[in-house]
C-alpha cells in the first residue's frame, strides 16, 4: 500500500539547510499496525507528514495504493487525504467552540453532507467509541482520553484506509494511553492500516512492527521474533488482561 524509495527531505531556512530524511526506503502493507520510533528531532513527524501528504519531499518516490504522490496540487493532495487518510494528533486538535458531535462531523461538512445526516453519522461513531452521552459536550468538558476518542471518531468518519497518529498518547497518563492503543488496535482489526509515532517503548510494543529512525535513515525494523523479544522487554510484565479495554 505504501512504497517509499530513497526519500529525501531538507528544511531550508535562509542560508541554512537541515537534511532530515536521507534516503528512506519503506514498505507498509494494507492492514499493518506500525510504530515509528526515534529520538526527538529524528524526523518522525516529517515522515508521517509526508505519508499523509501534509508535506512534500525533495527527491525519491512515494507510491500510495499504486499512485505516485509527487508534486501534487494542494487540491489533489487534499482529495487524496480526504479519501484515504485519517489524522490523530498528540494535542487532539479539536475545535474548542464546537461540541463533540460537531467535531466528529466536520470531515462530512467539508464533503458537503447536509447537517442532519452528518450529525446522525457522527452520533453513530461517538457511540462506537463509547461517547454517546458526550455528544453535546464541549472539548473543555472532557478528559484527555475522551478528547482523543472524539478525535479518533473524527478520523474514522471518512472511512479512511490509513490512520496516521503523531504521538497519540503523548498527552495521556499510562492507563488512558493503553485504552487509546486498544481502540487503535480494534481499528486495525477492521483492516485499517494504522501508523503511529511514539517514543514510548511500551506503546510501541502494542503494535506489530517498529520502525526505528536514526540519523535520517531507517536504523532498524523490529518484527516477528525480535518483536516478541521487544514486547517481553518493554511491557514490564503487564499482561494484556491488565490493559483496560
Ligand atoms: P521528530 O518528530 O522526530 O521529533 P521532526 O520531524 O519534527 O522530528 O523534525 C526533524 C527536524 O527537522 C528537527 O530538527 C526539526 O527542528 C526540523 N524541522 C521540522 N519541521 C521543520 C520546519 N517546518 N522548518 C524547519 N525545520 C523543521
Ligand atoms: Mg514529532
Automatic annotation (TrEMBL):
Belongs to the ABC transporter superfamily. Macrolide exporter (TC 3.A.1.122) family. One of its GO terms (molecular function) is ATP hydrolysis activity. Residues 2-240 form the ABC transporter domain. Gene3D superfamilies: P-loop containing nucleotide triphosphate hydrolases. CDD domains: ABC_MJ0796_LolCDE_FtsE. The lineage of its organism: Bacteria, Pseudomonadati, Bacteroidota, Bacteroidia, Marinilabiliales. Pfam families: ABC_tran. It comes from Aquipluma nitroreducens. GO terms for cellular component: membrane protein complex. This is ABC transporter ATP-binding protein YvcR. InterPro entries: AAA+_ATPase, ABC_transporter-like_ATP-bd, ABC_transporter-like_CS, MacB-like_ATP-bd, P-loop_NTPase. It comes from the Bacteria.
Amino acid at each position: 500500500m505504501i512504497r517509499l524509495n530513497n526519500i529525501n527531505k531538507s528544511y531550508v531556512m535562509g542560508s541554512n539547510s537541515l537534511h532530515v530524511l536521507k534516503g528512506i526506503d519503506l514498505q507498509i502493507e494494507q492492514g499493518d499496525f506500525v510504530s515509528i520510533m526515534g529520538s526527538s528531532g529524528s524526523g518522525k513527524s516529517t515522515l508521517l507528514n509526508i505519508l499523509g501528504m501534509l508535506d512534500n519531499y525533495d527527491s525519491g518516490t512515494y507510491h500510495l495504493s499504486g499512485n505516485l504522490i509527487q508534486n501534487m496540487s494542494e487540491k489533489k493532495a487534499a482529495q487524496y487525504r480526504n479519501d484515504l487518510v485519517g489524522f490523530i494528533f498528540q494535542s487532539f486538535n479539536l475545535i474548542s467552540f464546537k461540541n463533540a458531535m460537531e467535531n466528529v462531523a466536520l470531515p462530512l461538512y467539508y464533503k458537503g453532507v447536509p447537517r442532519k445526516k452528518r450529525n446522525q453519522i457522527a452520533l453513530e461513531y461517538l457511540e462506537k467509541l463509547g461517547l454517546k452521552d458526550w455528544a453535546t459536550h464541549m472539548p473543555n468538558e472532557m478528559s484527555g482520553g475522551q478528547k482523543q476518542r472524539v478525535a479518533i471518531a473524527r478520523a474514522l468518519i471518512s472511512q479512511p484506509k490509513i490512520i496516521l497518529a503523531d504521538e497519540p498518547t503523548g498527552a495521556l497518563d499510562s492507563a488512558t494511553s493503553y485504552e487509546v492503543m486498544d481502540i487503535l488496535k480494534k481499528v486495525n482489526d477492521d483492516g485499517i492500516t494504522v501508523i503511529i509515532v511514539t517514543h514510548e517503548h511500551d506503546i510501541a510494543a502494542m503494535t506489530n512492527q517498529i520502525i526505528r529512525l536514526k540519523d535520517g535513515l531507517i536504523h532498524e525494523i523490529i518484527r516477528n521474533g525480535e518483536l516478541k523479544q521487544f514486547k517481553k522487554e518493554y511491557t514490564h510484565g503487564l499482561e494484556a488482561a491488565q490493559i483496560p479495554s
